[in-house]
Amino acid sequence: MKVEDAIVEQIRQQAVRLSTSEDLDVLVEAIGDKKYVLLGEATHGTSEFYKLRMELSRKLIETKGFSFIAVEGDWPSCYEINRYVKQYKDAKPSSREVLETFNRWPTWMWANEEVGELMEWLNQHNADKPMAERVGFYGLDVYSLWESLEEIERYLQEKGTPEQLALARKAFECFDSYEKEGQNYGVSAAFYDESCKDEVVKLLQTLHAKRVRYEEDSEAALSVELNALVAVNAEDYYRTMVRHDADSWNVRDRHMVEALRRLADHHGPDAKIIVWEHNTHVGDARATDMLADGMVNVGQLVREAHGEADVFAIGFGTYRGTVIAATSWGAPMATMQVPPAQPGSWEELMHRAGAHDQILLLSKEDPILGHEVLGHRAIGVVYRPAHERGNYVPSLMARRYDAFVHVDESHALHPLTIKKVLV
C-alpha cells in the first residue's frame, strides 16, 4: 500500500466526525488536566476557526476552569477587550466600541462578528464572579510600539513617579521622528546606529521594579509593564527585520512567550491558559522546515518551558472555501477563494479520507504521521491564491500537533466596518 493510501486509511479509521459542538468533547477529554492549550488556525480570516476555538474555549473555561485567553493580537487593543469582558467600571460600554479600537491593518483579525460573540459570552460568564475569578483576554503580539508607548505615558501621568514619566517621555521622543513606521526605525537602527533600545529597556526596568496594584483595576500596572515589554521587543523586532527575517521571527515569538509567562505569573501557580494563534506559531517549529532555518515558535518554546505533558496543541485546517485576506501588505481586505488543497498535502488527504469536518487525535509515536513529511497549508493576512504552491509548510503532523481539526469547506469570517484604518 502506498504511504498516501495508508495515511488516508488511518485517518478514516481514527478520525471523529465533527457535526455538533458536543463532538468537541473528544478534545476536552484528551486535554485532561493540561495547563496550556494552544489553538491554531490555518488562516486569519476563516469563520469556522474562530467559532470552533470559541466553542472549545467555552468548554474548557466552564468545565476545567481555564483562567484566560491570550491571542495573536496587540496588547493595548486586546486589553480593552479584557476590560470589557471583566466589566471594569470605566470599560467601553459595548463590544462594538471596543472592537473599533482595532483600527490598524489588518483590522479584520479581531474586529469581526465572531470575536464580538466571544466577548459577549465572556462578559456574561464573568458577570456573577468575583474580579479575581473572571476570565481575561490579552494580546501577545509585538507590533503596537507607538500605541503601547502612548498607553504608558497616559498611565504614568496619573499613577507614575516623576522618574518613570520622564523615562517614558524620553523613549517616546526617541521613536517620535520615525512617523509611526516600524520599517523606518528599523533601517535607522540597523544601518545608522540610531537606536532607542537604551530608553525602552530603562523604562521597562523601572516599571517592573516599582509595580503598584490599584483596587479599581488590579491589572493596570501589569498592563503598563506589558506595554513596556512590547516597546523593548518591538525595537528589537524592527531592528532585526531589515537584516534577517528569521531573527525577527524569533524575536516576535520569544516576545509572545515572555508575555505569556508574565501573564501566567500574574494569575498564580494554578493558572490554566488558552492561546489563539496561527498554526505557524502554535505547531511545534521543530516538526517543520523552520528548524533548518534556525527558527523557533510559541509551540516549541512553551513545550520546552513547561514540558510536553502539560501542553496540548491543536492545528486547524481546511480543504477549500473562502477567506478574508489581502493581496499585499496594507491593501484592502477581500473575500477570496481558497482552492482545493494540493494533491498529496495533509488537507487533501484529510478530505480524501472523508469529505466532512473531522477531528483527529495525534501521537508523536505514530509510525507514519510522526515520520512522514507532508505539505500543510498556511495562509496569512496576505494571500495570493494563484501562488498557492508556496503556501505549504513541510510538516511532521503528529510531532507538530497533539490533535487536528479539519474543516472540509470553510467560509470567510464577518469583519466589522472600521471607520479609520491605519496602515
User: What is the correct CATH architecture of the largest domain?
Assistant: 3-Layer(aba) Sandwich
Domains (count): 2
Helix tally equals 16
Give the DSSP E fraction (strand runs of 2 or more residues). 5-15%
Would you state the CATH class of the largest domain? Alpha Beta
What Rg do the Cα atoms give? 21 Å
Q: Give the overall shape.
A: globular
CATH topology of the largest domain: EreA/ChaN-like  fold
Describe the structure.
With 423 residues, the protein is α/β, with parallel strands linked by helices. The protein folds into 2 domains: 276 residues, EreA-like (biosynthetic domain) (EreA/ChaN-like  fold); 104 residues. Helix content is 45%, strand content 14%. The chain is built from 16 helices and 11 strands. Strands 1, 2, 3, 4, 5, 6, 7, 8 and 11 form a 9-stranded mixed β-sheet that branches. Helix 7 runs antiparallel to helix 11, helix 8 packs antiparallel against helix 10 and helix 10 runs antiparallel to helix 11. It is globular, with a radius of gyration of 21 Å. The chain starts with a helix and ends in a 13-residue tail after the last strand.
Care to give the gist of this entry?
This is Erythromycin esterase family protein. With 423 residues, this protein is an alpha/beta fold.
Structural key phrases:
about 425 residues; alpha/beta; EreA/ChaN-like  fold; 2 domains; nine-stranded mixed beta sheet; two-stranded antiparallel ribbon; 11 strands; about 45% helix; Emycin_Estase; Erythromycin esterase family protein
What is the secondary structure topology, with strand pairs?
Blueprint: H1 3-14, E1 16-17, H2 25-31, E2 36-39, H3 47-64, E3 68-71, H4 75-85, H5 95-99, H6 113-126, E4 136-139, H7 145-159, H8 162-176, H9 182-191, H10 197-209, H11 220-241, H12 245-267, E5 273-276, H13 279-282, H14 298-306, E6 311-325, E7 334-338, H15 346-353, E8 358-361, E9 373-377, E10 392-396, H16 397-400, E11 403-410
Helix pairs in contact: 1-15, 3-6, 7-8, 7-11, 8-10, 9-11, 10-11, 11-12
